[in-house]
Fold these 4 entries.
Entry 1:
Amino acid sequence: MIRKLIKQGSGTYTISLPIKWIRRNEVLDSNYIYVKEKGSNLIISRFKRDTKTITLDINNNDSSWLRTYLASYYRLGYKNLILNFKNTYDLNQIEKILESLMGYEIINSTKKSIEIEDILFLNSHKSQDIIIKMFQTISSLYNLLNEKEKSKSNKNIESKNFKKNILKLRDYALRLIRLENTRFSYEWYTIVVFLEKISGEIYKLNSIEKNINEESIKHLKKSFSDLLILKDIFLKKDSQKIIDFHLKILDKDRKTYIQEISKNINSIVYSSSHRITHFLHAITSRLQIIYLSQDSDNK
């Protein structure tokens, strides 16, 4: 597209930005934008300034507690954490925790203090890119169920790695949603949380000691095929398809309460499949809100 330059004062020129780009990127009045010079070109992108730093007093060195505690501030969007420990700390333990928090690195440390910084701050990642990666990782976790040639121990190792990756992607997506701070932050946050819940159900099925019978696999496959349809709609951002799909999932979610369980279907598989359908219903309802609102903005 072509835009006309408008002279402002003695040494500045301005141009107007397309309203569709403004709405799509949810840029608000008085927001900053990022302008990068590349040769004879100027690259314009959305810019969100946030340089939050917080100092935390740490009185508990339990690894599980510490990971949960740091992750909560990570998801809130803090760029820098300064950790002051009451006692000495285990540096290897802290580094292992930070491996699960994408972008966080130790930049300075003393005997009782550690400074952590997000080295990926202001990168090009968007929360929706990470959501796509969550869909892909969940697909890989599901495919693991059908790999009969692998031993149970190998499956358990792989499924644990997938679970770690999902949690890492979940926290990173929630962090980006917080930093992006759009009017649909609540909806995106909910979508990410329920995607992680779906992965949790599939992880649980991978942990079952006995092999799942064919009829149970076929039953689960129906729920998983719905997830693939949702992924396709998400990639295409099709508002009409999300309305139709939402109605289908809503009907399916209601019917699961009155359907009788086949004797040949594993009860754990049936329960997980039911919960997956319920989680899909929650996700589609949020996507419906987002897509219909965006369609209205573009009219």
Entry 2:
Amino acid sequence: MPTSIYRTSGLMRFLLFAANFLSIAALPGAAQRVTLKIVRQHSNASCISGQISINGKIMGYTLERPWQGNLPLISSIPVGTYSAFVRTETKDKWRIELRDVPKRGNIQLHIGNFVADSLGCILIGRNLTDNLCTLTDSQAAFNSFKLEFAKAAGGEPDSEVPVTVIIEGAT
């Protein structure tokens, strides 16, 4: 019996030791951190457009309202790094929502082909038209984005997935 207690306590010591060096997110079944990067490549009085990637894999193009001093509902948001989460209480049941955007709330990544489809949010599409201010195939691009996000997160995405959104480039 003392050998059994010794083995158990030795196993417990090992697990406690290992827990200090292993990230819980690295364990099977745990959500993995997902990094979304938006690189703004075009900016004019009508829009801002660029590319979006998930953990370095380019997934499509983005479209935003033009920079108007970060005014709610009519401006794009400032460049920066934001934490985010999967929001499922929306009409389409799945969006990424940014946290702690200065002087703004409810900034989301969602479906839309035209600047008018956004009230300060970021739209995702498969391609940009020649004017660089209209997306194409937003629904298909967003579906692909969600699938890749789920893979990057280590499974089915939910509100527990840690998300970082990096926005850089033109304003």
Entry 3:
Amino acid sequence: MTQKKVIDPHREAFREKADQLLQQIGLLEISRELKVIAFKNAIDSAKKTLVTEAGPIEKELKGLKARLKKISSAERKRKSFDSICLAFGKIIFRKRTALKTLKGITWDKVKELLQEKELTKFLRIKCEVNKDALRDSKMTEEQLADLGVKKVPSRPFGYELDNDKIAGTTDQPAT
């Protein structure tokens, strides 16, 4: 004895509407991606134009800055000054101390030496909560609550598009 398949009209209406929405979403995503590609190409083209047109200006700026530094350094050697105000700006020789590694030493080696000598006050240590470890731990709800957290199960909404089928449709999405 075969059973008749009962068709739920509400379920069928849902399936039809959801499928229409997925098709519209897919078509819009394809349209958006084509626009993104067009904009990226336009940006690349604009960058090339900028390099071509601004390149000579950048080269001239670099030369002028080098000349200003050269004459300012020479003047500073002749007459000591930290800064000098001019009509179009100010020349400043800032006092600062830079650190450089000794010949043959890398910053990684410096870090090792600081750790070996237990000079940790000269090391930066990034500290953050490992949420994955907490989530996957065997801690009880009470233990987690003592730490100010709780586990919250979720089932986030998602969808998957069949882009091959969507690309084969000629319908345009409703706007």
Entry 4:
Amino acid sequence: MKIIFILVIGLAVMSLVAGCGNMALGPSGGGTPTHDSGTIEGKVNNSALQPLSQASLTLEGSSSSVLTGSDGAYIIQNAPVGKYNIYASKTGFLTSFDAVTVSAGATVMKDFTLMPTEEAGVSFSVTSTSFAGGTNIPKQFTVDGSNESIGLQWKKIPIDTQSFAISMTDKDANNKSHLLFTNIDKSITFLDEAAYKGTIAQHMPLGGVTLPNDFGNVGYDGPGTGQPSGTKHTYEIRVWALSVPTTNWQRYSDFLADGGVTVKGVATIEGTYTKQ
């Protein structure tokens, strides 16, 4: 009787463990959706609309991901109810993302088309989704407005880049830093507008670590911070392509002191702001 009892208990434990495994994201996306979760599914194609296998799908705020099959299809079950971004990435392609709203017990469809990364030999560059380079920075992104951080997109990435860093400095105030990011995942090619609203993180880039700026804040101090009224300053935003996945940089002087050891390329955009 003891042997039978132990066998029954063992089978029960194994069944419980297997059931728990269905709750986690995996290659198949997990098990049956729960009452407080939903399902996301779709396909990932290249620019020729051919299916991409082994593309990675990651939910914002999650450390788990799923991979597409040979037909480019994926499914994420047990996705938490709510609205957030989903990122699609694959080595050799630019990362794409889109917002999804997951409802309890429902399935939402989300397809992606990934564009190939630019080849070497073309200049690394950055543009802003918030203003045109060389023009005035809108009030929304300054300390006189909503103090929301500026949106960015970068392309023509140097070969073998392992991570990115971002800096924003005031060229008319001895390059005082207003925003510092490091360790941004190599698959990321953008920074959302309002990633920070002051010191409140809202849309952190994948892997990103925020360093204290020269105002002593971990976050964003927009143009106009520390700037005398009526003066016009030029702000420089740099995206740094790095040869290592993480750095031990702590402040902006560490960016400059690197001397090209880990920096593979730097893309720059400038904007101006007149303090009210």
